[in-house]
Design a protein that fits this description.
By secondary structure, the protein is of the alpha/beta class. Helices cover 46% and strands 14% of the residues. The strands form 4 sheets. Strands 2-1-3-12-6 form a 5-stranded mixed β-sheet. The chain has a 4-stranded mixed β-sheet with strand order 8-9-7-10, with helices on both faces. Strands 4-5 form a two-stranded antiparallel sheet.
Amino acid sequence: MTIMKGRAVRATATAAMLAVFGAPLAAEELFYVSGAVGNAVENFKTLVKPWEEATGNTVTLVPMPASTTDQFGQYRLWLAAGASDIDLYQTDVIWAPQLADHFVDLTEAAKDLAPQHFPSIIESQTVNGKLVALPIFTDAPALYYRKDLLDKYGKSPPKTWAELAETAKMIQDAERAEGKADLWGFVWQGNAYEGLTCNALEWVKSFGGGQIVEPDGTISINNENAVAALEAAKSWVGTISPDGVLAYQEEEARGVWQTGNAVFMRNWPYAYGLGNGDDSAVKGLFGVTTLPVGKEGDTSAATLGGWNVAVSKYSTKQEAAISLALYLAGPEAQKQRAIAESNLPTIISLYDDADIAAAQPIIPQWKDVFLNAVPRPSAPTLGKYNEVSAKFWSAVHSTLSGEGSAAENLELLEVDLTDLKGSGW
């Protein structure tokens, strides 16, 4: 009886999916390129299996480097060459304006699905009236903290960056005195890549130093608050953060954290579920909160992230590719990602889903982090964003490495950005 019931449920689910995505005309093999962190690669096969069974098509994941900067560079090479062997691209939230000309307009195909998503995220993927990518999950980072260690020393989650540095140093020194020589106070992403732009934007914005380039296109980065933010971050290197943090990306920071060797970590939601995995040294020992501020009265800032799926206009299998894009951006796949990978849904109703709340109780709570999300200046700088970001992270990395002061490097950055802007973005 149980077996028959299970078959009936699967048959019903398959029939429903066929109604949405259509019966297969002929089996197609699609190629999907995506960066991957954590357990995303292992989960992908499970994620697409219902769609493969319903349509008869298959999907091969082509994993990319974890660095979003490296991904973007490779994507541009493939798209510029009109590569027809890549059917779908998983794209960062900031890439739509720069890659729009290479992607299929999904406005008509997603007319019923798009209204289920956060309007601001759909808007971020709409360029000149064309919906060029569909959201599959959104992202905003938070401060991870060791509840057990804070409780042990009578400390609360820090509200300001100065408080974080003080608490991190105190606990780090005390624990090292007890023999935990590998413990660090704070790990984050300090490598010279897009991730450093995200971290440093949060520091600058939370110190009241603006958003590098403001929504009206004004270059704002050369100011006293931004200088103070970068000098504060510079003081962490070699004290509460290892010197090697200047080569860390997301996974390096998570590696230190998950082995129990950090008091605090700045990272994205994906690290939450992994941190509570059976192989994690910090399972059940940590919490998350909003990132600190420069001083009391300032506003916390969390860089708006998130990933989308776009269909290449050079693909020879566009019908099947659009079908897969709709599935990946739809409620079934988003729910599975949320449960398996602690990815934040972009479909509003899923924040009230009981299964998600039971499996990943942090997701409903992440709304507080999401409310403090700040966009990178990709909208005002348009096709020049990638160069703006590279110049910014280079100036920040130089400062953190001791190559010039924050004031000197931001003054030079302002000159470079002014030259890049020219008569307009």
